[in-house]
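Two quick folds needed for the group meeting slides. Do the first one here.
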Amino acid sequence: MSTPEAQALPPEVQQELRERWQALRLAGVLAIIVGVVAILVPAVFSVGTAIFIGIILLFAGAWMLFDAWSVRGAGRVLVRVLWALLTEFAGIYLLVAPLEGTVTLTFVLVVYFIAIGCVRIAEAVGLRGMPNAGMVGVNGVLSLLIGLLILIDFPSSADWAIGLLVGIDLLFAGWGLLTVSGLGRRLAAA
């Protein structure tokens, strides 16, 4: 017996949900736990995020430097080497001065939340009539509002904003994953 929500889904999506609902549930629970921790200690999570991004930039810069030598022409190699060195510099800066880096990261995250909010709202409009389209829309509206609220208080919000923004987004993403996993569980039981 199939639910009305499941009937709106293509058969291949229904099959994926039947097979992977437990992984979706686990991902949802983990997202909620990390989200709560980020909300409870946003300053620590903000600095941790800056350090994590710094490490990613160091690895990316190293790869870019290695890849720079794969192109032809001294001008192109030089441009790629400069790009790699700028990436390395940004990574080192975030590792050495993560508190100062949170101001820049907060601005980037605000732009991200505003953009992802608009994308999620557009996706929800496109998914009208599908299961959980409303949840996607609510997530989009909240992401957009959070981005705008943090932008209004910028740059003083940089100390705590990254942790709070990511935490709230993880809560809603986890809630959405739990909702989808519940549908998959019902499909698997049917």
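Then this one, please, same format:
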Amino acid sequence: MRHYIKDSTLIIEGGFEALSSGINGGRRHVDHLFNHQVQLGFDHFEPAQYMDRMVDSLQMQRPCFGLLTAVNMNNLCVMTDDYLTTFVTAGITHPSPHRANIGTINIIVVIKGILSESAMVGAVVTATEAKGLALLGMGFDFLGTTTDAVIVAYEKQPRPCIEYAGPYTDLGKKITKTVITGVQEGIKKTGSDTS
């Protein structure tokens, strides 16, 4: 795996089996994962087509999985714990009483190893729970925003298959730790608040 920032986009290269809740998401093999910074107030009426054009401009191979965020890539948080790398951008500005339009928290979790199908889904659940714990731990009264997304991906390595990724497994503990740290550091970096 190799990652870098190009044209306000985090690009992660490798050969991944991945699961994404983002635009054009699902489950498939991909060679690129990305998190692209858009302008504040971005409201494109065809976000999938916007992402297709952006993939072409960055010359990434399809299929790929990507996310959109208004968070500046200078505020990207990258945490590594043994065989796990977690990438987080977090912004939560101006929440409404109904929790609409309060930013985006994007999480990309990359594992060196092999995950079962249930472990991939479990990793999404564990990352989402950890995001909520991070927000509650900072005193917020919501568990996320309306546009949050998660990608879980693994690069096959010569190690046993990881069957489960719940919060009490070794992988789950690593996901929880890195996501909580990334979300909290990301929010501090962006200066997001609830005013």
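Slide caption for protein two: Residues 2-190 form one domain.
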